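EI: anyone free to look at a 362-residue chain?
SC: sure, send it
EI:
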Amino acid sequence: MPHRTGWWLPLHLFLPGALLLAISAATQLFVVTWAAGPPASDRVAAAQRWLLAGSVALLVASRELRWPRVLAGLGGVGVIGALLVLALSLQRTARKGVQRRFDAAVRAYLCALLAGVIGSAFGVAMASGLDGSALPRARAAHLTLNLLGLIGLVIVATLPSFTATQARVKMSPRADLRAQGTMLAWLCAALVAATAGFLMASPSVAAIGLGAYAAGLVGLGALLPTIHTKQLQWAGPRLLQLGAGMAWWTGATAAIAVQAARDHAVFTRPVIGILVVGGYAQILAAAVAYLGPVLRGGGHVRLSQGFRTTRSWVGLVAANVAAVALLFRANDVVVVAIGVWLVDTAIRAATLLRPPRAEPTG
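SC: here you go
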């Protein structure tokens, strides 16, 4: 669709808009379940949700429609406020909870939100008119902290348990508190190194940090449960989409590390596209394909029907065709593949949300 700000608009509608809203909901759901703690009140949850949605709307409208820069900055500040409210809600739930088995995952969520706050602060600085040699450094730090920090750490914390849930198996015994804590420390150190390297204009330091982050993602596979044919037959494209998303995410991070090592432009459009479409969008789709039927409820019969509805081979193929097309800059193929994916998703979502038929009486 013709618009002024190019890739910036859809990326910000999807990432701080759709994906961060999904993260806000999912992290609260998981922490309440894991910690057996009290959830945030409906009023606080609604305030956080609308603050985030309204702030993203203000940010993208101001940038796209050339409103005064102060409004775009205000939208960015609102996103930071929403992240802080979410962090306080999660911390309160975990502190008052009675289970400690998932403390490492909760800490990862809080680290992710801290990365998002700092990364969004760089975004506010750019929206407020930052220019000169500081602009590309701030942009690289903004993308590193928000894409790999905020979103990446949330996924890393969730995958060991969520993959097991998706596959209907037990968590891997390797994913104990110590292993998860070590993984978190490694990835946080890698993020700090990469961000510092970009801010100091030191390509080698940034490349080492990004390379370490990509290596951490490879190591994450050791914390996931072993998947057998039985699990693939049941979950099918949901599990495959989760795995494909992880593969694209790891590959894109490695590509950014190589770009940094060669002192080239980093976070180029093809790499961001691959990371977002092939990586994060697929992981989100796989998560919603499982959580959608669960949250809809309605008993075991409707649950099974829901899982059948969300088994989308079309979506799996279209998503990966789009990612490959982005790699080779085949824009027409990207448009068609994403279009097919969206139509397929919309049809399945409408089917999933359809009210149950009333049982005949008498």
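EI: The radius of gyration is 20 Å.
SC: 👍
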